[in-house]
Specification:
By secondary structure, the protein is mainly alpha-helical. The protein has helices at 5-13, 20-39, 42-58, 69-87, 116-134, 138-149, 154-161, 165-189. It folds into 2 domains: 1-93, Rna Polymerase Sigma Factor, Chain: A (Orthogonal Bundle), CATH 1.10.1740.10; 103-190, Winged helix-like DNA-binding domain superfamily/Winged helix DNA-binding domain (Arc Repressor Mutant, subunit A, Orthogonal Bundle). Helix content is 68%, strand content 0%.
């Protein structure tokens, strides 16, 4: 039986500070993924991930349990992302390294040579999607990232952002529409 976030928090607050590492292991990957998709740079995402867990640990006594721990953690991460975007003037540097979701570089074996054109086309599309995503205003980008990449529900996103579900849906729809327009423009330009 897996120990719940609330149980880990209780243990941490009771003085078992090593228990917090269980929360870090459980939530590090989703928080990093959210940060990377919001900021576009591995270095920034790693920094924000670390800042998020430090802030969560330091403020754990302030966590009231009104929302799920994950919602509170996502909110901290989004605040850190927005702060970082403001500091660098909302300029998003997009890495175009070809990596899979685990951060491993693609290595092509000889048997993959015939698949190279398809892989290059897929990778080029992925770069275009990232560029279209990062061209969106942060409030739309964060909703798309949480819904499409993190697979959170509309209710969870609304809780994290403290906005109505209808606003979440509106931002998602508008953001996806804007991405479609940008992707169409990129396709016609090629």
């Amino acid at each position: 039986m897996e120990i719940s976030d609330d149980q880990i928090i209780e243990r941490t607050l009771a003085g078992e500070t090593d228990a917090f590492s269980l929360l870090v292991r459980r939530w590090e990957r989703p928080i990093y993924g959210l940060s990377l998709r919001m900021l576009g740079r591995d270095e920034d995402a790693r920094d924000v991930c670390q800042e998020t867990f430090l802030a969560a640990f330091r403020n754990l006594r302030k966590f009231r349990g009104d929302a799920k721990f994950s919602s509170w953690l996502y909110r901290i991460a989004l605040n850190a992302c927005h702060s970082r975007m403001r500091k660098r003037g909302s300029v998003v540097e997009q890495s175009i390294d070809l990596e899979d979701d685990d951060g491993r570089k693609f290595e092509l074996a000889d048997s993959d040579a015939e698949l190279m054109p398809e892989r290059m086309q897929r990778d080029q599309l992925a770069v275009q999607v990232r560029k279209a995503l990062h061209a969106l205003p942060p409030e739309m980008r964060q909703v798309i990232v949480m819904k499409e990449y993190e697979e959170l529900t509309f209710a969870e996103i609304a809780e994290i952002l403290a906005i109505p579900v209808s606003t979440v849906k509106s931002r998602l729809y508008t953001g996806l529409q804007q991405m479609r327009v940008r992707l169409e423009k990129l396709r016609t330009a090629l």
